[in-house]
């Protein structure tokens, strides 16, 4: 049983590492599911996904929306798929070989382009799934023949065709000693191929080029190469540098690119060489390990370690962690020798540190593989949320005295509350990390932002510093007899305390069940509550049958356990009800990149709030500030539009927005002025005075 409980607590960590370890076995997603446009008419477009052998697409994860405000799409009619029993989604339909669908639309006369947002997700037969895909598709609606088919062919060059230096501008500036900022701008009516953009420099240059960070492209049915990603708008690119020499000097950068005129000629491959002056900076060794002696890196790394240590220390005060720490408080109070207290502290710390290391490795591996994972990502999985709710409920029942499993908790061989041994101490550390993940303490944001962008060795050290901060109070009590001596002596009061400490467990279970309900709907919540009821009955009968053990009594316990597992499985199969943020609330609108861009173009001040149901800090800010009448009045006075993004479930658009502000998770609060200018990032803990200063000039 101890292995089952431990696996439940670490399920998200182990599954994340397994997916990242097998990334090399997958085709690139655009090769697994190439997109093409089969036909375009004045009122419809036929879209085809090719599906490679050994891969499939989910029907229920496929959707198409219009990005043209003036274009209306008819409800999407997808063909029937092949029935399939999926381990994550239950009974679904899938597509193999190809998926072809016709999108019907109505557009005003003179509409030049159809802009579609394609959403889809698929998996490989080897058992690995891609993250949800979100691509923009631009389809020209030009002239039509007598059959109504849109003409996508190329015309011959005419006098209006621009020279290549006028059609495509290439600019670059030095961002800092370790990066370049480039801007490739096609003229109106021209586009650049994303996959034809490349950068190079000479072997003896003072810096090597890292992997360029390209912005999102739009997919376009190009007559030359098929449906490919292109840029019609300026492409702003960050190009990291790995310095070979610390002294200032010049860098010769060659930019390769190719583009076309829409419905016109395509230019041959082009290149432009730029000479850039780089300031002095730190170096990277040939092996790729960061030179931590470099002053510039130390100035970022050492403060990040300190902030992580302080953030981990403050996590001990967070409401999501306090219930678990009640275990350790009772165990240390019972420690009758210094050696016993040190053992408690060391095994608990080893559980915390190993879990933070696993969490850090999992998140960093997934991010390096291109998936946007952040702090608390595992609570975006309903199986983790529901499993933790049942686990917390079961712990509460044990502390209330409903049952006593062996000599302690969950058959671990030692009691977590009475005679806790190494296994129990280690598990308590693991559980503390799992329930701490939705909490973001002060100082943690900056430390995690550094970790998610730094070299993996430095990043891992930040995660370990967080773990050390979380474990530090118990380490101090275990190794400083003076502190341990201040703890109350064991006595009858501990049984009463144990019963009282069950209630924080129940409250944590209620909160997790509420999050699960937002992920799986009211039907899913009802089934989870049914599973909790069956679990309570099974545990009660398990304790009762100890008085008269027999085969019938054990069969009843097994049957109740099976019913609990079946109810939980049924809850997981409930369809996701969609985002919990509605189109419009009391004082907010739902966030989307398009809506933000529209408001910014109009010069309207905007306040963006990225939140999640499992984020404790977010809910505190909403209750105290953001959902109050005083804040609503402040929004009216400032003429500010309030946009809310919900990250309870994985959302690529929100993940990309978080990355834009180097934020590892929610909450994130950003205020945009009434006019051009960058957004201002606000603290994670808000007050009405902070919001007034930010919104009112």
How is this structure best described in words?
The chain is 40% helix and 22% strand. A seven-stranded mixed sheet has the order 4-9-11-17-18-14-21, with no helix packed on it. Strands 23-25-24-26-27 form a five-stranded mixed sheet, with helices on one face. A four-stranded antiparallel sheet has the order 1-2-8-5, with no helix packed on it. With 697 residues, it is an alpha+beta fold. It has 19 helices and 27 strands. The protein is globular, with a radius of gyration of 29 Å. It has four domains: 2-12 and 291-572, no CATH class; 33-140, Immunoglobulin-like, CATH 2.60.40; 164-278, Thiol:disulfide interchange protein DsbD, N-terminal domain (Immunoglobulin-like, Sandwich), CATH 2.60.40.1250; 589-695, 3-Layer(aba) Sandwich (Glutaredoxin), CATH 3.40.30. A hairpin with a 2-residue loop joins strand 12 (168-176) and strand 13 (179-186).
Helical residues, percent? 40-55%
Strand content: 15-25%
| Tally of individual helices | 19
Give the biggest sheet: 7 strands, mixed
Shape from CA axes? Answer: globular
Spatial strand arrangement across the major sheet? 4-9-11-17-18-14-21
Helix/sheet category: alpha+beta
* Total strands: 27
Low-confidence stretches: 1-22, 143-157, 284-296, 406-420, 579-584
Using the CA coordinates, give the radius of gyration: 29 Å
Round the mean pLDDT to the nearest integer and report it. 77
């Amino acid at each position: 049983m101890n292995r089952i409980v431990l696996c439940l607590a670490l399920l998200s960590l182990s599954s994340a590492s397994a997916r990242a370890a097998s990334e090399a076995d997958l085709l690139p997603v655009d090769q697994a599911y190439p997109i093409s446009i089969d036909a375009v008419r004045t009122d419809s477009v036929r879209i085809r996904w090719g599906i490679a052998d050994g891969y499939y697409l989910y029907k229920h994860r496929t959707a198409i929306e219009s990005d043209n405000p003036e274009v209306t799409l008819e409800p999407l009619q997808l063909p029937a798929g092949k029935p399939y029993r999926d381990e994550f989604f239950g009974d679904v339909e899938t597509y193999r070989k190809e998926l072809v669908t016709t999108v019907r639309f109505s557009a005003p006369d003179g509409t030049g382009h159809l802009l579609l947002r394609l959403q889809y997700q698929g998996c490989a037969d080897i058992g690995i799934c891609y993250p949800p895909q979100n691509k923009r598709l631009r389809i020209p609606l030009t002239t039509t023949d007598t059959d109504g088919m849109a003409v996508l062919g190329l015309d011959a060059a005419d006098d209006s065709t621009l020279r290549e230096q006028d059609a495509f501008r290439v600019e670059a500036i030095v961002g800092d000693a370790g990066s370049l900022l480039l801007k490739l701008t096609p003229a109106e009516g021209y586009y650049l191929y994303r996959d034809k953009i490349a950068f190079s420099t000479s072997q003896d240059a003072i810096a090597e080029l890292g992997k360029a960070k390209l912005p999102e492209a739009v997919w376009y049915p190009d007559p030359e190469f098929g449906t490919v990603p292109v840029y019609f708008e300026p492409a702003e690119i960050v190009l990291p540098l790995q310095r070979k020499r610390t002294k200032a000097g010049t860098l010769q950068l060659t930019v390769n690119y190719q583009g076309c005129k829409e419905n016109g000629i395509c230019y041959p491959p082009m290149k432009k060489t730029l000479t850039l002056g780089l300031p002095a900076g730190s170096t990277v060794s040939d092996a790729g390990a960061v030179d931590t002696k470099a002053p510039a890196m130390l100035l970022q790394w050492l403060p990040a370690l300190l902030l992580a240590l302080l953030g981990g220390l403050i996590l001990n005060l967070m409401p999501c962690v306090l219930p678990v720490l009640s275990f350790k408080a009772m165990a240390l109070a019972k420690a009758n020798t210094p050696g016993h207290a040190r053992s408690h502290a060391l095994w608990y710390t080893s559980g915390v540190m190993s879990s933070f290391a696993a969490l850090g490795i999992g998140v960093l591996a997934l991010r390096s593989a291109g998936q946007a994972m952040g702090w608390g990502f595992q609570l975006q999985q309903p199986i983790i949320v529901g499993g933790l709710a049942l686990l917390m409920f079961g712990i509460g029942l044990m502390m209330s005295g409903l049952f006593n499993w062996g000599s302690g908790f969950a058959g671990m061989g030692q009691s977590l509350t009475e005679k806790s041994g190494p296994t129990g101490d280690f598990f308590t550390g693991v559980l503390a990390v799992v329930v701490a993940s939705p909490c973001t303490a002060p100082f943690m944001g900056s430390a995690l932002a550094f970790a998610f962008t730094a070299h993996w060795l430095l990043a891992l050290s930040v995660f370990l510093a967080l773990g050390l901060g979380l474990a530090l109070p118990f380490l101090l009590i275990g190794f400083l007899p003076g502190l341990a001596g201040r703890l109350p002596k064991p006595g009858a009061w501990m049984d009463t305390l144990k019963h009282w400490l069950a209630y924080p467990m129940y409250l944590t279970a209620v909160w997790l069940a509420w999050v699960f309900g937002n992920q799986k709907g009211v039907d899913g919540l009802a089934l989870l509550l049914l599973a909790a009821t069956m679990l309570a009955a099974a545990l009660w009968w398990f304790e009762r049958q100890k008085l008269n053990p027999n085969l019938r009594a054990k069969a009843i316990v097994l049957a109740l356990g099976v019913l609990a597992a079946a109810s939980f499985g049924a809850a997981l199969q409930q369809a996701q009800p969609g985002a919990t943020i509605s189109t419009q609330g009391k004082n907010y609108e739902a966030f989307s990149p398009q809506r933000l861009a529209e408001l910014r173009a109009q010069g309207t001040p905007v306040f963006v709030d990225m939140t999640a149901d499992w984020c404790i800090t977010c809910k505190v800010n909403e209750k105290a500030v953001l959902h109050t009448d005083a804040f609503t009045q402040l929004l009216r006075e400032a003429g500010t539009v309030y946009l809310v993004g919900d990250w309870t479930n994985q959302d690529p658009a929100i993940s990309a927005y978080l990355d834009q502000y180097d934020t590892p998770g929610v909450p994130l609060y950003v205020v945009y002025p009434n006019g051009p200018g960058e957004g201002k990032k606000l603290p994670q803990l808000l007050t009405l005075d902070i919001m007034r200063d930010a919104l009112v000039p």
